[in-house]
Structure formats: structure tokens, C-alpha cells
Specification:
With about 400 residues, this protein is of the alpha+beta class. It contains ten helices and 23 strands. The strands form five sheets. Strands 7-8-9-3-10-11 form a six-stranded mixed beta sheet, sandwiched between helices. Bound molecules: adenosine-5'-triphosphate (ATP). One of its GO terms (biological process) is molybdate ion transport.
Length: about 400
């Protein structure tokens, strides 16, 4: 167990009560403004003390009210970039970084300052004082300073939002590398599911100081209304995929999900090996008894029907393809095909019917085609709202 927390804290009217355990991976801490994300990170980092409970990280007790243990912040094996953090304004970036490095035990040191200076492109600002830095530069310095503690876990409080767009695109692969190469789990707090999903699909949903749900997005999203709460419109299938390679000639990215190959819209920004979440609407999946040759649809995923669920004028067909896919077809089609539970079937999915979850905010317009004097908005979400200028 990486992290085991059960604490209570009251601040004015706000009460945080957070029983939470994390296995050996990072997670995204999602919550609306005021949900308690910064508070929870502060409790782990040691900037705040709970009234009761315990916090154990990687077998080390950081806090235990029963045993009377409170480990001071400097000694906690936690790197944290918190909104409430401050730095010595008169110190230079170099002094800040080397100061943090010299306080880390030699045998625990994971990173060298030079490595992080290169990784986070800090060389041009090394001799500036913290007071002279922009907000985004300060965030990068704080991140480097936290990593120089060689932490067992990295806590980030809405860092993408604070760091600015330019470095955001650079920071993402860095954080992914830290997780993969250095086995450094990141707990990332944000109000944006989209940002969290760029890093991880493990979610902790916090509301009003309470943990509503935790687990992989697929499981969390099963709860009625949860996706809407997370700021995502209703979608029927969410799949984790691993990107394999990009076919620039063919115009698609190839990925695996539960051992099945998927052709996805081309997104070269995903490094092969990285993970993403994709969504497919149930009524964007057609079914066929056999594999079809000579068809433009790139995804023909074979699976076995495990349930036929009648809806008002349609049938939801639950297909086990390694992962579970829900397809929605008309009752007429279901009857004509004489579908039965246990039958083998192919799920036909067009590449462009698959949407990266991180891009859902970018909807409703997926693509606008100008043909003659007419504009056509090619987006399922806009089906009821087409706009054809005169
Ligand atoms: N110093 C304080 N004293 C009393 N209450 C506080 C203090 N700081 C925060 N709170 C309250 O604690 C609650 C949780 O705040 P917190 O900053 O942890 O939320 P958050 O989820 O991080 O929000 P945001 O996304 O806006 O940063 C809020 O109701 C806030 O008003």
C-alpha cells in the first residue's frame, strides 16, 4: 500500500473526512472549487495538521493522533507543489535548488540538480531571484525543488493551470516519465477531468470534504450521473487504450485495449506506449454476424454477446470483446439478425466515431466542411443543431 489516510479536519464550517487508500500508482484528485483538494494535499505534505486520524506513506507514519506522531514537513518523503506554498523571495533559483538538494540525504537522492535544470529548462533563470520570476516560472522552480527532495510521492495542486500553456505541453511527458522511469506516483489535484486524464485514469472524487468515489474512471463512471458531475456529457463506452504507433499515411493512430487493436483518429502527440482514454457512443457501433471485406470501417472487433437489454425503441447489446462494449441497435435490426446471448458478433466502429476523452471539452464541432455555399458540421453532438448559412 502506497498511501493510507483516514483523517478528520475541521476548518470553520468546512469538515474534511477522508478515508482513502492508494495502491502503488498515482491518481487524479478531482473536485469542484472548495471541495477540499488543497486541504487534503496539505495534510499529506504536512502544511496542515488534522484533528485526528492517521496518514501512512510507503510504510512510514506521517501522522498518527493515537500514537502522538507528527512528522514535520521537511522530513516527509513527499514532494509538493501547493497553491499555498511560498519560497524565499530574495534567494536565486540556483540557491533554492541546491539548498533543497543539500538537505536531501545522500543515499536517498534520486535526481541531480543538473538533470532537473535541463529537464525543466531552468538554465536561463538560474541566477534570477525568485521575486523576479513569473508565476509559471515559479511553479517550475517549485517542481524542481520538490523533486530534489527525492520524494516517494509527488503532490501537484492544479499545476498545469498555473504553469501556463507553453510549459504544460512539455510538463506532461516529463510527469509521465517521472511516473514510468522513476516509479514516482503523482497525486494531481484539479477541477478539470480533462487535465487529470492526460496523466492518469485513476480518480479520487472529492466533494465537500468527503470522498465520493475512487478507482479507475471506467468504474467511477458507472455510477449514474457521475460523468455529468465530472463535467463530461453522457457517453456509453469508455476504454483505456495504449497507443502503439502512428500511421501518417493511413491517417490513424493504432492502439490496443484489452488485447484488441483499435484504429483511432491520428494524434501524433501521444508517445507510443502512452495511455489514453477514449469514448464511443453506443449508437455509433454497428453489428455484423461476420467480418466484412471491402468496407471503409477500420474497426471490426469480435466479441460474444453477453446481454440483450431492451430500451424504449432499441436494444442495447452488451458485447464482451475482452472489454465490454455497449452497442445500441433498433429492435427491428435485432430481430432480423436473430441475435441471441452467447452469439459471436463483430462490432463495427468508424475510426472517427472514437473520441479521446481529453478532447471532449473541444466538442461540439469536430469538423466543419465547406461544400459550395453550405457548411456542414460533422458532429454527432450537433445533430439537432445543424446550421446551414444561407
Ligand atoms: N485557512 C482557512 N481557514 C478556514 N477555512 C479554510 C481555510 N482555507 C480553506 N478553507 C476552507 O476549506 C474548504 C476547502 O478549501 P480547499 O482550498 O481545500 O478547496 P479546493 O478543492 O482546493 O478548492 P480550489 O479548487 O478552489 O483550490 C473551503 O470551504 C475553504 O473555504
Amino acid at each position: 500500500m502506497l498511501l493510507d489516510i483516514n483523517v478528520k479536519l475541521r476548518r470553520g464550517r468546512f469538515e474534511l473526512s477522508a478515508p482513502l487508500s492508494l495502491e502503488n500508482s498515482g491518481a487524479g484528485l478531482f473536485g469542484q472549487s472548495g471541495a477540499g483538494k488543497t486541504t487534503l494535499l496539505g495534510l499529506i505534505a504536512g502544511t496542515l495538521q488534522p484533528q485526528s486520524g492517521h496518514i501512512v506513506l510507503d510504510g512510514k507514519i506521517l501522522y498518527d493522533s493515537g500514537k502522538g506522531i507528527t512528522m514535520p514537513r521537511e522530513q516527509r518523503p513527499v514532494g509538493a507543489v501547493l497553491q499555498t506554498d511560498s519560497m524565499e523571495l530574495a534567494a536565486t533559483v540556483r540557491e533554492t535548488l541546491y539548498g533543497s538538494y543539500s538537505r536531501c540525504w545522500t543515499q536517498r537522492r534520486l535526481f541531480k540538480p543538473d538533470y532537473l535544470i535541463r529537464l525543466l529548462e531552468l538554465a536561463p533563470i538560474l541566477d534570477l531571484t525568485i521575486a523576479l520570476l513569473s508565476g509559471a516560472d515559479r511553479q517550475r522552480v517549485m517542481l524542481a525543488r520538490s523533486l530534489l527532495k527525492s520524494p516517494k510521492m509527488l503532490l501537484l495542486d492544479d499545476t498545469f493551470a498555473a504553469i501556463g500553456n507553453r510549459y504544460r505541453m512539455q510538463l506532461l511527458p516529463i510527469l509521465k516519465r517521472l511516473q514510468a522511469e522513476f516509479d514516482l506516483p503523482v497525486l494531481y489535484a484539479s477541477r478539470s477531468l480533462r487535465e487529470i486524464l492526460e496523466l492518469t485514469d485513476q480518480l479520487i472524487v472529492l466533494e465537500n470534504g468527503q470522498i465520493l468515489r475512487s478507482g479507475p474512471l471506467r468504474d467511477v463512471a458507472k455510477q449514474q450521473g457521475m460523468l455529468r458531475y465530472l463535467g463530461v456529457r453522457q457517453i456509453d463506452n469508455i476504454l483505456p487504450v495504449s497507443i502503439r504507433h502512428h500511421d501518417f499515411t493511413g491517417g490513424y493512430s493504432l492502439a490496443d485495449s484489452f488485447g484488441q487493436p483499435f484504429s483511432l483518429p491520428l494524434r501524433p502527440q501521444f508517445v507510443p506506449g502512452s495511455r489514453a482514454q477514449v469514448a464511443i457512443r453506443a449508437n455509433d457501433i454497428a453489428l455484423s454476424r461476420g467480418f466484412i471485406e471491402g468496407i471503409s470501417i477500420q474497426n471490426q472487433i469480435k466479441g460474444r454477446i453477453c446481454a440483450l437489454i431492451p430500451a424504449s425503441d432499441s436494444v442495447i447489446v452488451q458485447v464482451d470483446c475482452g472489454c465490454t462494449l455497449l452497442a445500441e441497435i433498433t429492435s427491428g435490426a435485432c430481430k432480423e439478425m436473430a441475435l441471441q446471448e452467447g452469439d459471436w458478433i463483430y462490432c463495427l466502429i468508424k475510426t472517427h466515431a472514437i473520441v479521446y476523452l481529453a478532447e471532449l471539452d473541444a466538442l461540439p464541432y469536430e469538423k466543419i466542411v465547406n461544400h459550395g455555399d453550405n457548411y456542414y458540421f460533422l458532429s454527432a453532438a450537433e445533430a439537432n443543431n445543424r446550421h446551414f448559412p444561407a
